[in-house]
């Protein structure tokens, strides 16, 4: 799966010859570390809930788009602006049931997909494969062409 992800990335990497090329692995590692609340190199399901609760500003059990953008901004100090924009664009993909909000139901579905070996922990390799596939399933390669 890792190799498949890398092969899928090659066209995007070829197009990213800009002054600040997007380093997808660096970006994914950074997001992983933000979600790994206890820094044990695994993302447990409840760590997703911790992040969710920290950024559900109006306590309605949903992460609205504006709350998602605030959450990304809160963790983006010194981050390549292209990375920040890329993460903004992930929001619709997280809304699995397409009801315009990200809620616990969506997170359950996303977590099940990310935890490839179903052991209740998401490792960095699992996370990288999952998020890379998510990005490419939603036209990530087009993002490179437009930027
Ligand atoms: Ca952890
Ligand atoms: Ca909310
Ligand atoms: Ca796992």
Strand order in the sheet with the most strands? 1-4
- What is the C-alpha radius of gyration, as a whole number of Å? 15 Å
> How would you describe the shape?
globular
The biggest beta sheet reads: 2 strands, antiparallel
Structural class: mainly alpha
Give start-end ranges of low-pLDDT stretches. Answer: none
Task: Please describe what this structure looks like.
Helix content is 62%, strand content 7%. It is globular and about 35 Å long. The relative contact order is 0.17. The protein is mainly alpha-helical and 147 residues long. The longest helix is centred in the N-terminal third of the chain and has 14 residues, at 2-15. The chain contains nine helices and four strands. Bound molecules: calcium ion (3 copies). Residues 56, 58, 60, 62-64, 67 line the site of one calcium ion.
What labels describe this entry?
two-stranded antiparallel sheet; 62% helix; 147 residues; globular; mainly alpha; binds calcium ion
Topology:
Layout: H1 2-15, H2 24-35, E1 42-44, H3 45-55, E2 62-63, H4 65-74, H5 81-88, H6 91-94, E3 102-103, H7 104-114, E4 121-123, H8 124-137, H9 140-146
Helix pairs in contact: 1-8, 1-9, 2-8
Brief write-up:
The protein contains nine helices and four strands; from the N terminus they run ααβαβαααβαβαα. With 147 residues, the protein is mainly α. Strands 1-4 form a two-stranded antiparallel ribbon. It has a two-stranded antiparallel sheet with strand order 2-3.
